[in-house]
């Protein structure tokens, strides 16, 4: 018996009195193409070099073809898993992946958003973390008119936007460069800011005040009623002093500062918790318990003495176990503490820092 193999066909020839041929078709099952990493949307300045990447698994050699703004517009020379371009204008991109068995899949569509705005201040070593190019501006408008606040940031991946008013997240204003309220009223007055984040970091815009008309406050008819309205329902203070660092110079002052401030606050009716030499985990735990004590009508005060620094407009507190050198991931962010305090809708939120503020 002789056997000949050609591609997917097996021919068996059996020498008998009569020669007969039997044909057996071998079906080869190729694996489905699976995209294991899709490209991501980006937001960059004009003429910025961008690399879009897709990763796929399948049988045999995989072929790639990138398209822009429609499945018929092939990107010239866009036949690799990585597509590098000079971003000139905002465009959509998608990649088709196919194998030799005529199977194909498409990646997710992604947007290369190009902002033709001032990019000054962006480091030449920028790695894609959010970089704020436009901060919102203060507004003073009349009731019934449109309120528009704008901020913009570069980022790879493109950053997500979350707007806040008076420390409270505006859930209907997510992932928007523009915050728009068609007919603003007095209740929309307050302090606004925006958080911009991606997988590489988070940045906050400068807070701005929005004044909508004149707020009319009904006068209190009785002094006692006014005093009751202004009185705190509780007063809580958390004092942290870090002085004995594992990898950084020791400090002398925090222990005395925490002691003296604690005595003064107790005289003012505060419930005070004083802690020294906390690791990052211990700091986060203490702050979490402190936040849980806050509520409407409560005065909340947080004090920290020790090493710290300011980076990208945000303040960070250095724990006693921070490595050398340390980064934001090893420290505690002050802005997050303030946001947590404001979310509890306290009557008064105070943060006092006795620390360095420069990198």
UniProtKB/TrEMBL annotation:
This is MALT paracaspase 3. Residues 233-310 form the Caspase family p20 domain. GO terms for biological process: proteolysis. Residues 130-211 form the Ig-like domain. One of its GO terms (molecular function) is cysteine-type endopeptidase activity. It holds the Pfam family Peptidase_C14. Coiled coil: none annotated. PANTHER family: MUCOSA ASSOCIATED LYMPHOID TISSUE LYMPHOMA TRANSLOCATION PROTEIN 1/PARACASPASE (PTHR22576), MUCOSA-ASSOCIATED LYMPHOID TISSUE LYMPHOMA TRANSLOCATION PROTEIN 1-LIKE (PTHR22576:SF38).
